[in-house]
Design goal:
There is one protein chain. This protein is of the alpha+beta class and 415 residues long. The chain contains 18 helices and 13 strands. A six-stranded mixed sheet has the order 1-2-3-9-6-4, with helices on both faces. Strands 5-13-10 form a three-stranded antiparallel sheet. It is globular and about 65 Å long. The structure holds protoporphyrin IX containing FE.
């Protein structure tokens, strides 16, 4: 590394920075396109353009061995997963997931997910106040447990393990040490429960075993592939959806706009909140060859840390109003909170479907959303969001269950 290369002593994973990383991200963006983080020995990539370009260049920036900051996480937790594979192996694994997560498969799920959102929104808003995290968690866990074909009894192991997995992707330290046993327990549980004889053939796991039987993937690929659904699909959506509700509660005019036309604004409202508060703040890549990032030379074997959370606030991409929550921002779907390139999140249609269903159900029922106390911030090495977010609602006068069939929800503005 050249003595003139941009570098920083920032301790990115300290509680103080995790609680509010945006000033540090701003400083990194001003320091350079790639900034060497002395504390962790990786290059932070803070600007939108560079993160987007790196995601599209998997030949230079590999995922195998480069996603997490420790060798143990890269080998023991991520080894063999779709997230941490490259080239032909990645294509082979991804093809199996794509079938189940494609927009066509989502169409078949729409009525079930819409009905679930209607029921939960009725239940949670009945008293006039609810916890956005509890509602999102209920929604997302019910969906993933059902699709995976896992019994409800394993819910807590899955929830604790999924969040812990993201702590384990960070650097050595207290958070990492505490999370390791929980993440390992989840992997053990998946190996115990997801066995050929026990799983429902109609579930995602059933389809994974079908792919094994058809010779598309090896038997040993089955559980690591399933772990992508659990680790990648739960907390991300729980935190992203709940944060969308928090941001709408903080911006009453945006909520009114969404209520007037939920079909039009529910998806942009979700994307705008992901842009502003990416549920996964960063992931790594390993350089397979030397290259330049924005004029900064990086050597083969070095690691970059792609700051999705910083890219979403980069004024070079989003203008001077980058920090503002604006569901009408025309290009907000171009955020990088879902990654990009060949590893672009495979679960976007499912995340969108769930978010739309909840937002529409809330729009049909609630004329006002406001924060009912300070949301409690989660401190996780990679994830950003809350562990509790109290919201008060004013129920719309016309709100009653009979008017809230999925069809009624889709029929334009609610008065
Ligand atoms: C708001 C919700 C979500 C967010 C913010 C999110 C974010 C991400 C990100 C950033 C990546 C790219 C990782 C990389 O850079 O290498 C990713 C990949 C992935 N996500 Fe999501 N995700 C969400 C929901 C879901 C859901 C619901 C599922 C499925 C149940 C899912 C499944 C996956 C899978 C399988 C991958 C790996 C794709 C690959 O490596 O080819 N995600 N997600």
């Amino acid at each position: 590394m050249s003595a003139l290369a941009p570098s920083s002593s920032l301790r990115l994973f300290d509680d103080r920075v995790l609680a509010d990383p945006y000033p540090s991200y701003g400083a990194l963006r001003c320091t350079g396109a790639a900034v060497h983080l002395e504390e962790y020995g990786v290059w932070a990539i803070p600007r939108h353009t560079d993160v987007a370009a790196i995601l599209k260049d998997p030949d230079t920036f590999g995922s195998d061995g480069g996603i997490a900051l420790t060798a143990l996480a890269n080998q023991e937790i991520l080894g063999g997963t779709v997230l941490a594979s490259d080239g032909a192996r990645h294509i082979k694994l991804r093809r199996v997931l794509s079938k189940q997560l494609a927009p066509r498969a989502m169409k078949a799920l729409t009525s079930r997910i819409t009905a679930r959102a209607e029921r939960l929104v009725d239940q949670y808003t009945a008293s006039g106040r609810f916890d956005a995290i509890a509602l999102s968690r209920h929604m997302v866990c019910d969906t993933v447990m059902e699709l995976m074909g896992l019994p409800d009894a394993d819910r807590d192991v899955l929830l604790d393990g999924a969040a812990a997995t993201f702590d384990v992707f960070g650097p050595h330290g207290d958070r990492y040490q505490q999370a390791l046993p929980l993440a390992s327990r989840m992997v053990e549980m998946l190996h115990e429960k997801l066995i050929r004889e026990k799983v429902n053939r109609e579930s995602w796991m059933g389809a994974i075993f079908e792919a094994v039987d058809a010779g598309e993937i090896d038997e040993g690929d089955a559980v690591p592939l399933a772990s992508a659904y659990t680790a990648a699909g739960i907390d991300t959506t729980v935190l992203g959806l709940a944060d969308c509700l928090v941001q709408l509660a903080q911006h009453p005019q945006q909520w009114q706009l969404l209520r007037r036309d939920p079909d039009r604004w529910a998806t942009p409202a979700f994307h705008e909140s992901l842009r502003r508060e990416a549920p996964i703040q960063g992931f790594g890549r390993l350089l397979t060859q030397a290259t330049d990032v924005g004029g900064v030379h990086l050597d083969a074997g070095e690691q970059v840390w792609l700051l999705y959370g910083s890219a979403g606030r980069d004024p070079r991409q989003w203008g001077d109003e980058a920090d503002v929550y604006d569901i009408q921002r025309p290009d907000n779907h171009q955020h990088l909170a879902f990654g990009g390139g060949p590893h672009l999140c495979a679960g976007i249609p499912l995340a969108e479907l769930q978010a739309r269903a909840v937002l529409r159900a809330l729009a049909a029922r609630c004329s006002h959303l406001t924060l009912d106390g300070e949301p409690v911030r989660v401190l996780n090495n990679l994830l950003r969001g809350h562990s509790a977010a109290p919201i008060a609602v004013e129920l719309a006068p016309s709100s009653n269950s009979a008017d809230r069939s999925p069809e009624a929800c889709q029929q334009g503005p609610v008065t």
